[in-house]
Amino acid sequence: MTTRHTFARIDLGTMLLVAKGSRLSGAYFEGHVHPPQADLIGEPVAEHDDQVLVQAARELREYLVGERQQFDIAVHTAGDPFSEQVWSQLRRIPFGTTTTYGAIATGLGNPGLAQRVGQAVGRNPIMIVVPCHRVLGADGSLTGYAGGLERKRKLLALEEPPPAHAGRLF
What we know:
- The protein is 31% helix and 17% strand.
- By secondary structure, it is of the alpha/beta class.
- The protein folds into two domains: 3-64; 81-159, Orthogonal Bundle (Arc Repressor Mutant, subunit A), CATH 1.10.10.10.
- The strands form two sheets. The chain has a four-stranded mixed sheet, covered by helices on one side. Strands 5-6 form a two-stranded parallel ribbon.
- It is globular, with a radius of gyration of 17 Å.
């Protein structure tokens, strides 16, 4: 499978998008805390010249303007078995909801693994599409986000339901 990458401008900044074969394998913000190794992102390509990267960038842009709540693009993650379990749990968090590291650890059968869950969440290779921004600290606080806490705030605000309108008659 051929690995290649491009840089796409989206509303929250520039993202490095990486594709492996017919799947998205990476989505990293500029200044990402855990960027991929240069030898793992393949050759550079123009965004518009690659069907997978075109789709990824389009879906991210649609999400950020409120036109999409779920992603259709196929993804490929290549983590250790524990990380894969955590990332699978992240994919199950519905749009507009949040969970905690402890809840994910409990869902995996061991509440004592919350810190290890946090490490796996922090190394999620496909930001936004695999929604690690929906994970909060045990007290509901915004904790680490490899793309920056300000971006996490914006992503959560984007998913927040609109306020009830005062004066509604029903």
